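The protein record passed on below.

***
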Amino acid sequence: MKPQFTFLLIFAVLVGLAQLMGAMDQYFLTVIIFIGINITMATSLNLINGFTGQFSLGHAGFMGVGAYISAIISTYLTTHGMSPDGASGVIVLGVALLGGGLFAALTGLAVGIPSLRLKGDYLAIVTLGFNEIIRVIIQNVDFKIQGTHYVGGARGFAVPQLSSFLWVYGIALVVIYFVQNVINSTYGRGFLAVRDDEIAAEAMGINTTRFKVKAFVIGAFFAGIGGGLFAHYIQYITPDNFTFLKSIEIVVMVILGGMGSTYGVILAVILLMVLPEFLREFSEYRMLIYSLLLVILMILRPQGLFGNASIKKLVGKWKPTTIPDR
């Protein structure tokens, strides 16, 4: 079993047991849920920024597309005869998440084809622009079907609560497992080749634009699913949930964890979500201390918490040396 998969599985089991035992109040459960959603978001962005070497600042846009499309689907189904409870609720959320993910992937394809021939700062600016285009479109769209408002424009959109701890961490485990297996496969080496040396990869016959677009589409698909989980947990979404600041937050998680390190990204998400909670007693200076700690950490560890090292490499460094028998 992959070490990242094992780590998150143990974490999920522990929190699940705590929830069943009634040892966790609603506030801390919400923090845990948001950690799981951000693990999905950061892992999917890591495929684009970390493993393929691009620099996207539009991930919150794909999250917003997935959130709104999945919310529209679930609202339509629940207002036309399907119950949000029991097995019917599982079907409703499953269909909604799949629809939101697919629509986000199509959006990623539409963004990726014209923009991924760019590199570096130019690509970041273009993806940031697309993020704002998506947000502004959502902010100005509202329509009604049989008396029910959908999207809601700037005032927001009420969503049935269907997400749960098991849904959030089940999806996170699937995303981690999928990304790790793709990257470690023979085909996935193409993503790493694009990151390491795009010119050399082209010389070896790799269609680098195709690999970048595929990474973008896959990342957008999982971001859309993460957005659907987010929408169906908080129950009310607005365009302000998906601004460029949310994109930057996810990018910080990836950079802090280490570009191309899934294990590091998971730990960075947990750190960045839990640290503000410990600083709540310093409410007046909480964000100042939080920002200062981030700056210090990035100065001391510019390559991230673990760089691009895997847990297997790290464990290997800590193995004690043994003296061979004579």
Summary: Residues 86-115 form the longest helix (30 residues). Strands lie at 143-145, 148-150, 157-158, 236-237. The chain has a mean pLDDT of 82. The domain at 3-318 is CATH 1.10.3470 (ABC transporter involved in vitamin B12 uptake, BtuC).
